[in-house]
Amino acid sequence: MKKEIEENESTNFIHQIIEKDLLEGKNGSRVHTRFPPEPNGYLHIGHAKSIILNFSTAEKYNGLCNLRFDDTNPMKEEEEYVRSIKENIKWLGYDWEDRCYFASDYFEKMYEYAVQLIKKGKAYVCDLSADEIREYRGTPTQVGKNSPYRNRENDENLKLFKKMKAGEFPNGAKTLRAKIDMSNPNINMRDPIIYRILHSAHQNTGNKWCIYPTYDWAHGLEDSIENITHSLCTLEFEDHRPLYDWFLNELEVYRPQQIEFARLNLNYTMMSKRKLNELVSKNYVNGWDDPRMPTISGLKRRGYTPDAIKDFIERIGVAKNEGIVDIALLEHCLRDDLNKKALRFMGVLDPIKVVIDNYPDDKTEELEAINNPGDESAGTRKVPFSKEIYIEKDDFMEVAPKKYYRLTIGREVRLRYAYFIKATSIVKDKNGEITEIHCTYDPATKGGNSPDGRKVKSTIHWVSAKDAIDANVRMYDRLFTVENPLGDKEKSFKEFLNPDSLKVLENCKLEPNLKNLNVGDTVQFERKGYFILDEDSTNKDQVFNLAVPLRDKWKKIRRKR
Q: Active-site residue among 86, 122, 150, 263?
């Protein structure tokens, strides 16, 4: 391992720290990380960064990674969230094996540690209300003041703490606080709460407990109990690290090394689980897995792949400073991945009928189409062609401007994999809307090539009318209209919700090969984008979600730079 590390030094600052530890034989030359989600909501793309970092780091150094649920607040936690978190991690390709733990597994041990602090005179029972505690705490620029209950005798604190555990006091009546320093410049060190009274059943422990540890008390202890070597946290935990260290030092137990990194921030979205929960609970979106949501479940339903997300996380890297990443890069990574993998099909999303007047009425032929031009092994498929076809409405203009090269009266275009056609006339309804386009075709151009060498400037896709299958297609756009929906302190983020973030196109026409897809299959509709067959589909009605359009904004951004 030592020689291997010396020959292949990492550019990731966290890995550099770990490699230095391994070279020095620290922690017995082992690496043990953990991913510690709170089961109070669905995981989002920011959590994906932490999942990938923790599990891949363990893999890189032949170590272990635990999955641990920080279930210290039964009021906000649900089994549904636990289940979804496990599914998300598995979907990303990681396995915690037999190392799935819960903070609640250690409640008894945490209680014993709290008793130990009380006996040392390092913790006390406080009768101040939550509002009073906030008032006494002070501000970042003003020191706090001691609680009037700070100097209770150890024996009295022990008796009161046991009564708290026995359920003799109502919610909010008392707390157990660490006795540190109310004048400490780090506000987290000003006698933080260790336990609060909460008469609420817990999903794992039932009604056994009516006092629950705070996150700050539980977090470092869990890492210590599990012998974690490198506790990888986002930057908001940096100011909490002195508190975690104080707890572990006072208890004289094993202390892991905590390393902070910048969390992931994307423009045109937000990573606040509380605010995402508000979007769900107030029906601004259709659940946690709505494809507009930045949740892993939402991204999966949108058509994102684990490889695309991992590529994205690798490209943005692991940094120490906060920044905002352009969502166009995430879309680029998906587009890049699907370009290699997705089979191509033809789908007309806004159809108008074309009648090829000189094509035989009763003839249908099978034309050969390429499944993926970048992957010969994907092979070809047969696509039916007949007298009547559908094309996109915007692929025809009655009066075309100079640089419009698609179909118009008197002009030839190429039908993908088929023939050259030339528009000759149109049919309109009583409102003046075009309902039908009449064309002629050149039989000599089968396959889309002209034997006499004449050129056309446009190739359009199509679907045979009598063979087409109907589908609804959900066209998704960004959920917010501004880059930073939380940036305006005078406005609610909900004011920036994009009213056009979802448009449903009905009666789209797709080539018949698409009826053989399974839910979750992602394909390319030629010239349109990548789409995934949604779980709302039935045997009769197919529903596709737009994963990402073909146009790559990130490439343009890179070229400008």
A: 263
